[in-house]
From TrEMBL:
Domain NAD-dependent epimerase/dehydratase, chain residue ranges per copy: 3-90
A GO term, aspect molecular function: GDP-L-fucose synthase activity
Pfam family, one: Epimerase
Protein name: NAD-dependent epimerase/dehydratase family protein
SUPFAM superfamilies referenced in this protein's UniProt entry, alphabetically: NAD(P)-binding Rossmann-fold domains (SSF51735)
Gene3D superfamilies in UniProt: NAD(P)-binding Rossmann-like Domain, UDP-galactose 4-epimerase, domain 1
InterPro entries recorded: Epimerase_deHydtase, NAD(P)-bd_dom_sf
Recorded superkingdom: Bacteria
Length: 91
C-alpha cells in the first residue's frame, strides 16, 4: 500500500508537468530513486531502508559485534541517491 501512494504521487507529478508544457511553460519532471541525506529518520519503528541499515551498522559496531545481520531474501533491487546530489542535478 505504501509503494502505491508513492507511485501515484510520482505519476500525478509527471502528468501535471506534461499539462504545463502543453499550455505555455517549460517543465521537467524528475522521478528520483530512494533518497537519503543528513536529516534522515533513523528511528527503528518507521525509517526507510537505507537509514535503517546505517543504524544497524552503527549499533552493532558500538556493541563490538563482528558482523551485521540483515533480514530478507536479497532479491529486491533498490536504487539510492544522496539528496544533495539530486539537488545539484536538478539545478
Amino acid at each position: 500500500m505504501t509503494k502505491e501512494r508513492y507511485a501515484i504521487a510520482k505519476i500525478a507529478g509527471i502528468k501535471c508537468a506534461a499539462l504545463i508544457v502543453r499550455s505555455t511553460a517549460v517543465s521537467i519532471s524528475v522521478t528520483p530513486p530512494n533518497l537519503y541525506g543528513y536529516n534522515d529518520n533513523y528511528r527503528p519503528e518507521n525509517s526507510h531502508v537505507l537509514p535503517a541499515l546505517i543504524r544497524s551498522f552503527y549499533e552493532e559496531k558500538e556493541q563490538g559485534l563482528p558482523s551485521v545481520t540483515i533480514l530478507g531474501t536479497g532479491s529486491p533491487k533498490c536504487e539510492f541517491l544522496f539528496a544533495d546530489d539530486l539537488a545539484d542535478a536538478c539545478y
